[in-house]
């Protein structure tokens, strides 16, 4: 603790709170003397087998890749994401090949054609983290190696999964120079009103929370241009459907017939 003398301790309001070690810790001590950021001293009970997580040096705070942090644990991840989002107004952060996205709950001017062309042809990591960088990597690997690629978009209710998927599809439609007059993402997402008719539910974080999962397959020709898309599989939380059993089965079977058609 002589070099890195700052730690994170749990807090009921802020989840994690930063503190500085005010007195050297010796193996076997039951109490750690801490100095909080507001100047308050605290005797914090510790378990020798589970000491408070260390805080990263300030020079690493705000890194665009979480794997670059010296200490990678829950408080470090949350603090880094908060700094990037609240102070730098950046919603994307890498964690290796994973892209972490913070939902700003408002439109941002970072998804236009100029941004798409800026990421086109670039290697992942050469530019700031972005959903377009992930889409470009998948598109490039598909075109170069002639192999199918998958992008998994996951998150809690209201995290912005549907919007992120739409931006990825918009990227594919633009860089592949699709000749279709209507954007492929509009065609694929046109099925949403059908699935959302009884497949959505109100939660504490999202008034229109999707209670289903989709596997959308986008097809490309030999010139790597989009020629169509399929919703291959459909997963519904049946416990969220409140209609009578007979009607529910008819509705679900009808959806499966509609969603299996090529867009």
TrEMBL record:
Gene3D superfamilies: Kinesin motor domain (3.40.850.10)
Pfam family, one: Myosin_head
MF term (GO), any: microfilament motor activity
One GO process term, biological-process aspect: actin filament organization
Gene Ontology terms: cellular component: cytoplasm; membrane; myosin complex
Keywords tagged on the record: Actin-binding, ATP-binding, Motor protein, Myosin, Nucleotide-binding
SMART domains the record matches: MYSc
Span of domain Myosin N-terminal SH3-like: 2-56
Keyword Protein transport: no
Superkingdom of source: Eukaryota
Binding sites annotated in the UniProt record for ATP: 155-162
Residue ranges of domain Myosin motor in the record: 61-263
Family: Belongs to the TRAFAC class myosin-kinesin ATPase superfamily. Myosin family.
Protein name (database record): Myosin VC
Lineage: Eukaryota, Metazoa, Chordata, Craniata, Vertebrata
């Amino acid at each position: 603790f002589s070099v890195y003398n700052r730690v994170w301790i749990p807090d009921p309001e802020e989840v994690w709170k930063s503190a500085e070690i005010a007195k050297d810790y010796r193996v076997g001590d039951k109490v750690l003397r801490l100095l909080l950021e507001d100047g308050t001293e605290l005797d914090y009970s510790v378990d020798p087998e589970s000491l408070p997580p260390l805080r990263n040096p300030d020079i690493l705070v705000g890194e665009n890749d979480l794997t670059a942090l010296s200490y990678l644990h829950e408080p470090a991840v949350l603090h880094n994401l908060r700094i990037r989002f609240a102070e730098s107004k950046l919603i994307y952060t890498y964690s290796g090949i994973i892209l972490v996205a913070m939902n700003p709950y408002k439109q941002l001017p970072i998804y236009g054609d100029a941004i798409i062309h800026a990421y086109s042809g670039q290697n992942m990591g050469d530019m700031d983290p972005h959903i377009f960088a992930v889409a470009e990597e998948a598109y490039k690997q598909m075109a170069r190696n002639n192999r199918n690629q998958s992008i998994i978009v996951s998150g809690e209710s209201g995290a912005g999964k549907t919007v992120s998927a739409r931006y990825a599809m918009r990227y594919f439609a633009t860089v592949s120079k699709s000749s279709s007059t209507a954007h492929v993402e509009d065609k694929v997402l046109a099925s949403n009103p059908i699935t959302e008719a009884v497949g959505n539910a109100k939660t504490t974080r999202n008034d229109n929370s999707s209670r289903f999962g989709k596997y959308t397959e986008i097809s490309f020709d030999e010139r790597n241009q989009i020629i169509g898309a399929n919703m291959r599989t459909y997963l519904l939380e049946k416990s969220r459907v409140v209609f009578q059993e007979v009607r529910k089965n008819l509705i679900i079977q009808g959806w499966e017939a509609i969603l299996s058609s090529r867009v």
